Amino acid sequence: MDGPGALIKLLERDGVICTRGTRLTPLGGGVSCEIYLVEDGDETFVVKRALAKLKVKADWFADISRNRHEWEYIRYVAKFLPEAVPALGHCSATDNYFAMEHLSGSFLNWKQLLLAGKANVEHASRAADILAQIHRHSDGDAEAMRLFDTTPNFFQLRIESYLLATGAKHPALRPLFETEAARLAGVRECLVHGDFSPKNILISPERMVVLDCEVAWYGEPAFDLAFLLNHFFLKALLHAPKDAAMRPMIDKFWIDYQMVRPSPEMEPRVGRLLLMLMLARVDGKSPVEYLDPKRREFIREFVQEQLPVENFSLRRISDLWFDCLGKFGK
Ligand SMILES: Nc1ncnc2c1ncn2[C@@H]1O[C@H](COP(=O)(O)OP(=O)(O)O)[C@@H](O)[C@H]1O
Ligand SMILES: [Mg+2]
To answer: What count of other Cβ atoms lies within 10 Å of the Cβ of residue 101?
Structure first.
């Protein structure tokens, strides 16, 4: 059973709450879980519990074991970057929930900052450092490989719903999407977050904290880079013709990632995935909500033109994108 009543019973049974009159307040934003702020006497924390069916229009089910992968990811990262993840409380593998520190006070959601046009290269630099450290630490790590052996989950939530669903809508590009889907499913390089998006990153002056790690997968790190970079490109399009200063963030993110985990051979993998994810956020199963039809068409034209060229230099993609954006709406 789902819902706050059932959750309170579970928390009482497991000794996570100990007073009467505990208050549960839903935290906004979730599509795949129940997430509540819990006020129990003097204690305040957050509890997240997986739902078997996502709260989106299309029927979209996911394996609830992803809740365990989320707290395993947080626990794994906390060993070497404790500040970059919320402190963990009780974790229940049997009832698919966990408790964590409530990040309150001066924390802001990065997506809200970007939507409001508040670009900051320092944020890109911090995100690059965190991501590169997680990738570097887990490179070839047998424990991470065992804990995050989640390819079927990643296939369902990312490869199928982003790549294959998008390819199916673009017959001319379909073979490229299918080839990439097959390649991606076979990579085992390091620990991937899988949803490394500004909406899942909270920022305070002292700390940047990564949330929502339920798509964690031991696989292809280029996915995390392309996923985040895509958000910068889309925010630039959202704000065009106004220059939202996204280009410096894109460049800084890539450069700073390379400083911590040099992997120049990854660039074409990132570039290809970036183009595919751009189109996926228009025609895949999880489209962005903030782009108007003209901007969605801009993406289709850009990707249809660039993907078959097979030149995935990030500088080239950025130059072309911002060149086209400069002419947007004129
Ligand atoms: N520990 C936390 N402290 C404060 N806010 C949180 C915390 N965990 C989640 N949130 C808020 O709730 C939102 C949804 O949580 P998230 O883990 O991203 O769930 P979903 O998988 O449904 O997207 C986040 O975007 C964030 O705004
Ligand atoms: Mg989220």
So the answer is: 14
